[in-house]
């Protein structure tokens, strides 16, 4: 049974059967932000050579971004909680444009890193606050699907990000990639300003009270814990998936691009399916997604020597890994009474989980357990997430009864 809806019925629902233009604008913003996060992986060698910095220093363009996401998600959401959410989203995308503009024009490594940090600050808050706005664009029974549409931009960026960055960077240089993302950001900013109704961003309850009570519910903390561990299990394994494919499955390095696309297609499919299923029965969907993810990781560890099985399982990894995202977002915000800080905290929790999973997976490899070890470690982490989700669902059902 889902947690009771505590927000008012949206005043600007979309036309039945038609995708609200505001959701398209949110998805476009998510696509641009996702590109910023993912393209960097294909550009690091170029950037390292051009700016004359070490590979380790270049790596901070990724890790520095991730840390800024975790900090910005809480900080910016807390600071802007009293303002109209549409206005905040437009401001966040403007910050995103500024960060990528700095990156495109960066004369040196320090300015480039600063641009990455500025762009990252908007990441968590955009998805946290954007998920609340997305829900108000549709009827309550379509809330998770609306969130899934917004996150579709991020999942598509995951599929296209690395090849997009590599293609543009190889032909016109790495700066051209950031110029292209800046242009996408400007388009997203204009779309948000024009297509998102002001009423969708109205703060409908006393913000101070909402923030004060957001984290008093045990359901909020249980959902955040399940999010962190669910993400941690998937991304902890995914961090080392290239080694699994090349050292265990015996794929060549040139196969990695299309294998990652298979994974990305799984993300997109899981996001769509998970959003639809969560609107029917959210907690059962979340438990099924986590169970499917744990089984996938365990089977992947056992069958990684088979190339055919590996292809099927990397799709399944993406599918079940992202099927829980829309439901987790709507669950935590409902439990927090609609507080935007809770939605942004969910994004921070996922980033904390990513770091934890990658660290534990790396420890397992360093201990000599082999390149399938992160898959088994991931399965164990996800089983912990499933146990927490079962406890949360039972507690919510008991409270409802």
Explained architecture:
The N terminus is likely disordered. The chain is globular and about 55 Å long. 56% of the residues are buried. The chain starts with 20 loop residues before the first helix and ends with a helix. It has 401 residues and is mostly helical. It is 81% helix and 0% strand. It is built from 16 helices and no strands.
Could you give a quick summary of the protein structure above?
This protein has 401 residues and is mainly alpha-helical. The chain contains 16 helices and no strands.
Largest sheet: none
The value of Rg in angstroms is 20 Å
Please report which band the strand proportion falls in: under 5%, 5-15%, 15-25%, 25-35%, 35-45% or over 45%: under 5%
Average of pLDDT: 85
The count of strands amounts to 0
Shape: globular
The separation of the N and C termini measures: 10 Å
Helix vs. strand class: mainly alpha
Which spans have pLDDT < 50 for at least 5 consecutive residues? Answer: 1-16
Return the string of H and E elements: HHHHHHHHHHHHHHHH
Please give the share of residues in helix: over 70%
So how many helices?
Answer: 16
Defining key terms:
401 residues; mainly alpha; disordered N terminus
Topology record:
Blueprint: H1 21-38, H2 40-51, H3 55-79, H4 85-105, H5 109-136, H6 143-172, H7 174-195, H8 207-214, H9 218-238, H10 241-248, H11 256-280, H12 282-303, H13 307-323, H14 325-335, H15 340-366, H16 373-400
Helix pairs in contact: 1-5, 1-6, 1-7, 2-3, 2-6, 3-5, 3-15, 4-5, 4-7, 5-6, 5-15, 6-7, 6-11, 6-14, 9-12, 9-14, 9-15, 9-16, 11-12, 11-13, 12-13, 12-16, 14-15, 15-16
